[in-house]
Structure formats: C-alpha cells, structure tokens
Amino acid sequence: MWLTCLSPAFALANSSTAGYSNEGLKLLKTENIRMAKEDLFLSTREIRVRYTFENLTQEPIQTLVAFPFPKMDAITEWDVSKASHFKLKIGGKSQKTRRETVYTLEGKEYRDKAQAEKLLAAERKKREAAEEEGAPFEAFVQDFELWEQRFPAGQSVDVEISYRPSVGADLGWNQESYQSAQAQKTYCIDASTAKGLDKALAALGNADAAPSGPYLQWLSYVLVTGNNWAGPIGQFHLTIEKPAPNAILSLCMDGLKKTSATRFETTRENFRPERDLSLIFFHR
C-alpha cells in the first residue's frame, strides 16, 4: 500500500491501492504496478516521501489510492499530535485528496463519528464506574487520505507526499523507559545505546528517580505496506533527522550511517520491508 512505544504506536505509512467491501475500506495488493523508488525523510517536524511508480502493463490503470495515518487507541487519551498539513503532488502538480476516518470497535468498523463516539463514551463511563478493570475493549481510530490516480500504460509516475507527522511525547525518562521489554522490542535498543542512555541519566543525577526533566518523543511509519506493490521496492533511501544534535535515537533498522550532526541515512536495493519503523528520541 502507499506510504500507510512506550505507549501505542503512532504510524505514518506507505500507500496502497484500495477498495470498498461490505466490511469497509480495504488496502489491496497489485501485481501490475511497481514501486521503482522510494526516498523517505523522517523527522518530528515533517515527513516527506517521493516515489516513482511503474505501470508494468500495456493498459492504463485507474485506481483508488489510500494513504493510512496512525491507528490510534480510541479509549485512552495520549499526549500525541495529530498528523496534518497533508500535501500531494503527482508529476509535480498538486492534487486534492479527501480524508476518511474509520473507527474499529471490537472488530467492527464504523464511519459514523457520532455513533462511534456514543459507543466510546459508554465504554469510558463503564470503566470509570468499575472498581476493577474489566475485559479489554479494543477500540481504534484511523484516518486515511484517499484519491483517484491514473497510471499510464507502460510509463512511470512520480508521486510526492509531505505532512506534519503524528508525534508522541512524554516529560522525563528513566531506565525503565529503555530497559523495558516493550521498549527493547519496539526500538531495538542495543547495548551501546543503553550505555549512552545510562551515562546521560547519570549526568542528570536521576537514574533511579521517577521520570522528570528531559523529555522523549516517538513516531512510527508504516513501511511493510510497500510490499503491496509488484515485487520489491527497487531502490529505497531513508533519511532520519534528529530534533537536536544531543538527542539519542533508537530504531530497528540496520545499516544506518551518520551523515551529519543530526542525520542518519541508508540505501537498500530490491528492498522488502519486514517490519514498520518505530523511532524514539531521548532528549537530554
């Protein structure tokens, strides 16, 4: 599909062809369109991605394309900014999109916001009244940017997307912030990074204290949907920019090389992403 934590993952994404069924919006796989190139830039202030797609057939293809934003917990209120300022260019020309919001409550999809919010309000009220936490109530909300796109027969199409990402933040961090099993699994914090974080905490004098002082930020990007296009991504280039030179970055991605005081980059050929990207920045 198209482009589309210490707390829930806040994702941005690789796009995908899409369609509607009785079960709701679906992101589809195609064998007729190849993602020849993807140049992805990630930061807490802006995300930019440039694609080159190739129509592998001798017929023009007209399809609905969906760009999914984060799937977010609809019950718990987290300190997270919402993705905004979405801009799309196809062949260098701006194109309008429309946003669709999908609520998923206990496995059932709702597009009527009033109906979904009524159900969510009832669940929150029930939780507040209960002396003990009841059975888990799965509730997510996810936004999509949608547009119709034409892929000319046997030709390439350049697509550019930019927006302000959804970024989670929390004031203060301690050893639990990076030693927990969840943090290790989500951000692949290795021994070298953990040692640097231990040193930073020691300098702050709060290694064993409750979180306070410096803050952390995190964001995620849906990468595996790049597998919805025909074959692997021909050439994938990733640039990550830290919010500050002294911020400590961790994520699950091998081969990153530091190219400036704030930037890390990697390039892959015939790339098949096996997992999405989750980034965390420890400020100090």
Order of helices and strands: EEEEEEEEEEHEEEHHHEEEEEE
Largest sheet composition? 8 strands, mixed
Strand portion, in percent? over 45%
> Low-confidence parts lasting 5 or more residues at pLDDT below 50?
1-12
Oligomer type? single chain
How many whole angstroms does the radius of gyration measure? Answer: 20 Å
CATH architecture: Sandwich
Helix content: 10-25%
CATH class category? Mainly Beta
State the domain count.
1
CATH topology: Immunoglobulin-like
Report the average pLDDT across residues: 85
Overall body shape: globular
Q: Let me know the number of strands.
A: 19
Number of helices: 4
Order of strands, widest sheet: 8-7-12-5-4-15-18-17
Molecular structure report:
With 284 residues, this protein is an alpha+beta fold. It has one domain (2-167, 219-272): Immunoglobulin-like (Sandwich). It is built from 4 helices and 19 strands. The strands form 3 sheets. An 8-stranded mixed β-sheet has the order 8-7-12-5-4-15-18-17, with no helix packed on it. The longest helix is centred in the middle third of the chain and has 17 residues, at 113-129. The two termini are 37 Å apart. This is Conserved uncharacterized protein.
